[in-house]
Amino acid sequence: MRIAVYPGSFDPVHSGHINVIRRAARLFDRVIVAVAENVEKGRGIFTVAERVAMLSEVVGDLPTVEVSAYSGLTVDFALARGATCLIKGLRAVGDFDFELKQSAMNRRLAPSLDTLLLIADPEYAFVSSSLIREVASLGGSVDSIVPALVAERIRAKFAG
Hints:
Layout: E1 3-8, H1 15-27, E2 30-36, H2 48-58, E3 65-70, H3 74-80, E4 85-90, H4 93-109, E5 114-119, H5 129-137, H6 148-158
Parallel strand pairs: 1-2, 1-4, 2-3, 4-5
């Protein structure tokens, strides 16, 4: 069985993430979407439990995809679940530079894990969770770049 892990903070999950998950599900027998607390990205808007719940609902139609929270090293999480590949999405050159370095470190830590970089569909190349948080916090609509249930929960977070 080919198992891949797609790690990220997913705060919030957006259409670019969903696109990568759906594409990965076509390539692997099982995809584990691994939700982590990422302190480097600053304070988010949703708890880990809220992110897991939203993702589970959004990908509920994909029987080979599961969503799980984790802490610690991504490679340890992946190896414990029998994964042979980490999935990462790329939007621009800046993403490549970061992911290349991260992939090299992951390879050093876990030589049996490969990293597959999936290039974002052009319509999602500008989308990031941090941009969504910023726009939503200032009262802008992010409805066209997040699933409907996520848009509702973002509005609820920023109401009042």
